[in-house]
Structure formats: C-alpha cells, structure tokens
Design brief:
CATH topology: Cyclic Phosphodiesterase, Chain: A
Keywords: Hydrolase
Oligomer: single chain
Largest sheet: 4 strands, antiparallel
Strand content: 35-45%
Number of domains: 1
Function: Hydrolyzes RNA 2',3'-cyclic phosphodiester to an RNA 2'-phosphomonoester.
Enzyme class: hydrolase
CATH superfamily: Cyclic phosphodiesterase
CATH architecture: Alpha-Beta Complex
Strand order of the largest sheet: 2-1-7-8
CATH class: Alpha Beta
Number of helices: 3
Distance between the termini: 33 Å
Helix content: 25-40%
GO molecular function, one term: 2',3'-cyclic-nucleotide 3'-phosphodiesterase activity
EC number: 3.1.4.58
Length: 170
C-alpha cells in the first residue's frame, strides 16, 4: 500500500477549497484535501506498524497550530500542472516536518525525503495554468493523519486515513 503523512483539511477551509476548484477539471474531492508532510511510498503492514508508535509520540509533543495559506496558484511550477493553496513554511509547520523526517530516518524501512518541503493543498489539475490569487486561507493543524493512497483501475487517487493522531503537546 502507498502511504503518506498529512494534515487533513476540514471545516470552513474545506468548503473554500471546493468553491475555489468548482468547475475545474480533476478537482480534488473534499475527502481528499490535505497538506502532505511526508510521502512514505510503498509500505508493508509491518512497516506501518513499526512507524505508528513514533508518529503517536511525535504528535503528542506538538501543540495544535494554524497555517496561513496565502496564495492560490499553479503548482509546483508557474505553469502547473496543479492548482494549489500555498504558503511559505511557518516555524511550527517546519518543526513538525523536520521531526517527521528525523523519525523516518530512525525507523527501519523508511527514509527521510531529500527534496525541499513546499507546503500546499492541491485543489485541482486544470490542464492549463490559472491566474495566481492572493488571500488568507487558514488551516487548523490539530491532527496528523497516516493516509493510504488508492489509485486502482486508472481512477483518480482516493485517500483513506489509516490512523489519526491528535497534536496535543503544549
């Protein structure tokens, strides 16, 4: 199974994301909206079982925080192919991401990512670049989810939470 760690998008922000992508090709369904913190790749049930205690302990050390997403723009390049809400990494988000990368380096079967962290919430894959918009979209980061990505039969991927971890540090 292919897995990743992310912060789910819910509440008012999920409604705003759906409105921003309304009518666009390959719009992300509300249930798929998230901010990815780490791609884990192909995982066995055993490797997931080894990872869960570390993620649980990590989440317990981090307090909930908010993320200000300040642009709705083509991603990852100026020409797309995706439309996403983006932001410059904030301290609390960077700290959580760094701790996850350290954990991945320490757990057998996982490796830290080497590419630069570019926080974003994918809204759609419109097929052509759209105009960049600025704004203030607030993501409440109070949970960390371990997701499974299911993209069988040529369908768009669907993301299912395998485990939820409350950010409960203080």
């Amino acid at each position: 199974m292919r897995c990743f760690l992310g912060i789910p998008v819910s509440g008012p922000l999920a409604h705003e994301c759906v409105a921003l992508s309304l009518g666009l090709p390959q719009a992300s369904p509300r249930r798929n909206l998230h901010l990815t913190l780490a791609f884990l790749g192909e995982c066995s049930p055993g490797s997931v079982k080894r990872l869960v205690p570390g993620v649980s302990a990590l989440a317990a050390r981090h307090a909930p925080f908010t993320i200000a997403l300040t642009a709705c723009e083509p991603f990852p390049e100026p020409e797309g192919p995706y439309l996403a809400l983006t932001q410059t990494t904030q301290t609390a988000l960077a700290s959580l991401h760094d701790d996850i990368q350290q954990l991945l380096s320490a757990v057998d079967g996982f490796t830290a990512e080497t590419r630069r962290f570019r926080p974003h919430v994918t809204l759609a894959k419109p097929g052509e670049p759209l105009q960049r918009r600025t704004g203030q979209w607030i993501l409440d980061a109070d949970q960390l989810w371990l997701y499974e990505s299911d993209s069988r039969h040529g369908r768009p991927p669907s993301y299912h939470p395998l485990q939820r971890f409350a950010l409960s540090g203080g």
